[in-house]
User: Fold these one by one.
Assistant:
Number 1:
Amino acid sequence: MVNIVVQISKYIIIILMAAYTFSCFSIFTRNYEDEERRVLIRQNVLMFLLQFAAFGAMYLAADDIRIMFIYAALAVTLLAVILLYNLIYPNVSRLVVNNMCMLINAGMIMITRLSSDNASPYGSAVRQMIFVVLGIVFGLTVPVLIRKLKVLENWTYIYAGVGGAALLIVAVFAVSSGGAKLSFDLGPISIQPSEFVKILFVFFVASSLKKSVEFKNIVVTTAVAAGHVLILVLSTDLGAALIFFVVYLIMLYVATRQPLYALAGIAAGVLAAVIGYHLFSHIQVRVQAWQDPFAAYSGGGYQLAQSLFAIGTGSWFGTGLFQGQPDMIPVAETDFIFSAITEEMGVIYALCLILICVSCYVMFLNIAMELRDPFYKLIALGLGTCYIFQVFLQIGGVTKFIPSTGVTLPLVSYGGSSLLSTMIMFGIIQGLYIIREDEEEERIERKRERELRNEPRKTNRKNTAKTRPRFEEVPKQRTRRKQRVR
Amino acid sequence: MTYFFVILFIALIAYVIYFTVVRARTVVNSPYNQRQDSFAETVVRGDIVDRNGNVLATTTVGDDGSETRSYPYGNVFSHVVGYSDSDLGNTGLESVENFELLTSNAFFLEKLQNQFTDSKNRGDTVVTTLDAELQQASYDALGDNRGAVVVMEASTGKILSMVSKPDYNPNTILSDWSTLNSDEDNSPLLNRATQGSYAPGSTFKIVTTLAFMRQNSNYGNYTYDCIGEITTGDTTIHCFDGTAHGYEDLRSSIANSCNSSFANIGTLLDIDGYRDTAEDLLFNSDLPSVLGYTKSSFALTSDSGEAEIMMTAMGQGKTTVSPYHMALITQAIANGGTLMEPYLVDSVTNYTGTEIRRNVPKSYRRLMTSDEAAQLKEYMAAVVEEGTGSVLSGASYSAAGKTGTAEYSMSDGEKTHSWFMGFTNVDNPELVISVITEGSDGSASGKAVSIARQILDSYYD
């Protein structure tokens, strides 16, 4: 009987998820503010219904009251996030807030499910819950800092210095502990610095490239960036190294518009990959496991094989919560959470999850495109790239689309550092969104003044052309263009 | 640049869909997947039946809910159907089709009812391409010999019969296990049809012939005068029983299975080209097979000595091959050069017989041109008409093939394997057959071809 409820809830969850995902993209076609607001509120309703269906099914299946406590805590927290953002920052992108909550929600459902087998049952779900609350505190503070702190763009080498030092400490630490240890312990919590250094790195590149795109400065910036990547490679954090590399390449290209730099970068990347492959045996193991995880089953293919079994068993609709065996996948809560989700909630649900991540990225790009200040623009672009590329590496890795690099799925995977850093990233981008609204307002203000003074518009148009964002066109989607009249 | 990630993600999503639609079934079927075992908690393992619906494996549920897997044909299907045991695991089709057998596509209302009453669903039925009558005939014809038989439908690649001996009884596998598993002299658990690794003997002369044809466009003019032996350097190769075959062309060299002539051909071959031909015929490479198999090996390189080259050309040397692989080569020749992918599962139905999925014949690869296949076909017909395969002439069906006798030394003296590969209904090939009997005392010439005749007679009568 319980099983029937679980099975029915499975389909309900998929329908809710699909409806939510659809609205993530349909919202870009809405033309009026009140229409848009209706969609956003509907998204919230869908999310809470989904949450109820999932936690209700889990409670019935596992018959453990602790699941309901976690449910209550999560529901209250997410409701608070939505209300607080509304209250404190009426101008942020509500779509990004909703998506952030949806991803955290999807992660918490699976972490709750998986942690039922923990040594202390639901231990990691509770810990993750604490980090969600912490992350929200950061997420709510960061936007105002970004908006007020005008000196952020001058700290170029502070970013590089602090970030580089943190990575170096980990590298030394990792080498002394036999490699592959990417975190260090501070009392009861362990911190993975590379998650936070990503943000510093983007700030460093943005501020440096804003100052100058002269050849000399680019050489210096590239050298510092290469230093970051090299340290990461030496501490065997290949996933992070790859993310830093791609983020830098894209930021450089957008800042300079020089295809030559991009080509040189890609060539250097390919060369480095080939050298790395021959130099490091653990890269070869990963590649072999990717080529044929079953042939290399006992030699590194085990994890990927288990991941594929999970995805294959789940198929389109999944087995239903608590009906599969995602606990057979190693590190299911962190690196392989996508496979665990797919097994029990189905491929359709999982594809929706991917699309929600893409929706976030589209919104980030929209924000980047509309920002005028090159520093902020580069930051929005860099952080957006950082986010979406990590999602790609993660999901591509666990589905055997590309060799796995061992990164986490932002906001979904278990892990405090990953969750906090991603929420800070989202906070920064929300801050930039507010800045964009300010810019917009200023422009309207100036325009009105001009009209009052009856200034000819010609000169102005020329200026706009010059300072127009030097971005390629993204698909035409609407960001919120609020005409405020004061 | 903006579209870069959008394209990446479209590719990723397309890949995930592809994986779910196409790859997932194969992956989940992997014997490494322990998830399958848990399916048994909600599903009663389905049946395996032959092409006419004869039950080869079934599960009966006792009044107390205990489940027993039984195999009505006993030893006859032991290797190809395999066994399924909770302690010993699964082999053969029981292993390959484990996922299907433990998946229930019963009518959904019935499944819903089972949910409510907490009863198990009945797993799907695997309908094989095997023909119980032909399998029984192959089993009987092989008699007490050690060896294997593979019979395939030429035009489709359907495997009709696959026998390996010594065998075992899957009904009593658990109690017999320690005896069977420790019997290293007979290794009864080994499926010799696909996993046996034998010297091909004279059947390999087909490969040598193809290499020679490819390297000499005027192969029709080849002549050789056989005096019953050939000596090059300090190696002497004898014809079977020392028979001097006299003046021969390529056709009569094959029909007579003349060792001296083929050793001579070996010395004329470009070895790299020879190896390319062997590898075109899937030596040293993967074979299309759902069951576990041993790769065949062709070891000659341009550094190999004259003696080894001559030995290899007539089918001795270091070359090894499985009876299954020989059936594949024969099938490609019968099909005008194209190998049809062999398969064992015709369809999967739910337990009431409603079809869920059907396999259709598909070509695997072209192994040789149609001209080459036609020429080899003609030579193989000559073997039956006027050569070493004459046992098969005068039947109600026409046949073509190649016999073989592979010698090997054991502690108790010289022994021989007897081989036959061939097909029936030469103008429009129908059945492909490959037979090997192991380790006779030298007098085994023609044993395999006689067994083939017996099997084919029973099929056509």
Number 2:
Amino acid sequence: MNKTLKAALAGLAISTAMSGATFAEDIKVGILLPYSGVYAALGQDIDDAFALGLETFGADVGVTFDIVREDTEVKPPVGLAKTKKLILQDEVDVMVGVVSSGVLGAIRDTVDGAGVPLIVANAGNDEATGAACSPFITRISFSNQQVNRPMGQWMVDQGVKKVFTIAPDYAAGRQMIDAFTTAFTAAGGEVVGQEWPAFQKTQDFGPFLANAKASGADAVYVFFAGGEAISFVKQYDSFGLKAELSLYGSGFLTSALYVEAEGPAAEGMITALHYVPTLDNPENAAFVAAFMEKTGRIPSEYAVQGYDSARALVEAVKSGATDRETLAAALPKVSFTGPRGELRIDPATNNVVQPIHVYETVAGPDGLTQKVLATLPAEADPANGCVMPASVN
Amino acid sequence: MTTDLGFWVLQTLNALQLSMLLFLLSVGLTVIFGLMHFVNPAHGSLYAFGAYMAASLAGVLGYWGGFFLVPLAVAALGAVLYFTLIRSQRRAGPMAQVLVTFGLIFVAVDATRLIWGDLPIGIAIPAMFEGQLPLLGVEYPIYRLFIIALGLVVLAALTLVLTRTQIGAMIRAGVDNDQMAACLGINVERMFFLVFVVGCALAGLAGAVAAPVLSVTPDMGLQILIPTLIVIVIGGLGSLKGAVAGSLIFGFVQTFGAVLLPTLNSVLIYALLAAVLVIRPEGLLPAKG
């Protein structure tokens, strides 16, 4: 017993010494995600896929990634406290995560002031890569406007001339719809009416649907996410609107994460998103297979954001970055072809530039699936007041 | 749009449907309060449990299995709550009661997350109620008409029990003056238990009925709590008529406010609540005259 223990310890010591020799660098990564609260499922998808991404791409770069996880609870003050802990106490080299735009807004100044690079793996508020942009914040996920803008021209091309829009009355809802309507009217379409139900207080969309029906629109364009998306899609169908008024929207509406709960009501809805699990490319095939093997779930857009965040970090490390300063400089320069297609970071805003996929929710052999109708070319967001200091780049 | 009769019919039906759902929830809460002077914020959690159980049972027994079993299961849960927590807090005063039952909400939210996960769940509308029915020139979803009908049936049954039966008379006596009722030989404590359990069953029923219309999420109990409390405060604590009136007022103000005065909608119902509290602090139709 004692002998084996000694042998084991000796072995451990040797392997530690060897690994010390092999891996010259340790990079400490702080993960800021909601592991509890309403977005816990999103946090889990990002976390699982981030780990998968580090395993897939980070195995042979000669660096060990130490992970420190913190739960933001989707509460801005909690997120801020956890960010300070990661920066000051854990002294992380880089942070990854942030699902809620509210949390991102709350931690922005701290991240910027401390000069610790942050890879945003979800939060899509336009300001984060607009007026409130920072050389230390690189967004690998999406921006609200980016996902919706291309649908404006595309729907006009499909012959839709008049739309009615519905979205929850909060910043993301406004940004998603405004980006769409601006592009839609510029392309010659007409917005005949808009409804803004109170965010997280509206469970019954019946009153708004009646107005949409009476408006004389050709189609309805909406943004909803999570539980609200499920309620909305089911109620839209139950009022018999699907047959007479086509439903289009931001792709979060029929996300792979929620579509099963929506059931047949979601069939035939056409939405746009930066990722769907049915994209036909070798990178995505490998990702879907690996993610399903690891978790048993089909990867959502949240998962791919976690996966690509890991890839971006690894690419930055491969380019020679080792600490806060060099990582911050290297992250905005990464570009690679991943499951979503070709990704690069716009140097003017540090926001990702990526193609947007228009997809229809259709019935497949194993339940509902996504049929990609069109892939719209990648387009950088306008700078929107973002001024990057020259010194960092 | 507002001159079109169809618009008014449609929105009136929407308002009625919301009112009936709120009625199922608030009637239990208000009678429990009237009889026991006991506020139970965890009532909304029982509604959430009802919805989750209905979602689980829908996969095994179909919608109707859930519809009939869920109220019984939630009533059983209510009975367990009664014997473990509620009874011992009966004389503890309102502060302790609210703390205990408010704590229960958080326990319930995390319990539903542990059992059913974080992702919202949806269940299908039963096949016989799919589709729409032409009614006064509008096409209205049949399932929503079913909710309205169910609310009216429950209202009729409760009115009958409370006004025409001995147990109803005993409950009314208990609400009016529980000490006097006890002196007259009514076992107030047992009646109390009965009312509590029936109230829980109705909350469960509301959850089961709401599940196909809404998405089933861990925080749905919290979301419905505020409207339910507003309903019973406007209507008058402890009174069946008050719960009916409060539910109708809330349903109509919320629905028509949303479409006619969208910018004012989120404050409209609170403004009404404040006005009621200033002008008639005891509510519009209080239990005790």
